Each structure stands twice: as structure tokens, then as C-alpha cells.
Amino acid sequence: MTSKVDEALSYEQARDELIEVVRRLEAGGTTLEESLALWERGEELAKVCRRWLEGARARLDAALAEEEGKDAERDGE
Known about the structure:
Blueprint: H1 4-7, H2 11-27, H3 32-76
Helix pairs in contact: 2-3
């Protein structure tokens, strides 16, 4: 479950932290427990990013549908 703090993150903040988590995991040198904690944090950050992107897609789809509706009204006049 995503925390309230995660919900307050901007897309850019979540993305940047996710990049850092991936960098640390790829670098290695962490214990199994640290790696698991990083992985879990990465999953949460990915969810935050996904929600932002899904919201952006919905806004774009709505704007495109609105524009198509206006075009259809003009064509019908």
C-alpha cells in the first residue's frame, strides 16, 4: 500500500528516487535485506509514477475527445 508521503510525491520526485534505487541495486554491495528493502521501495515508487502517467493519459484522452466533439459540431453545422 502506498503511503501518504508517496502520494504527495510529484512524478519527477518519484522518478528521480526510483532512478537512484535502481542505481543502488545495480551497483550491488548491499545485503540481502537492504536489497529487498530497495526493491520494495522501487515497486512503490513505480506505482506512484504509473498513477501519474495514467492520470496524464486520462487528461489527454479527455482533451482529445473534447476536441473531436467540437470538430464534429462544426462539421455538422
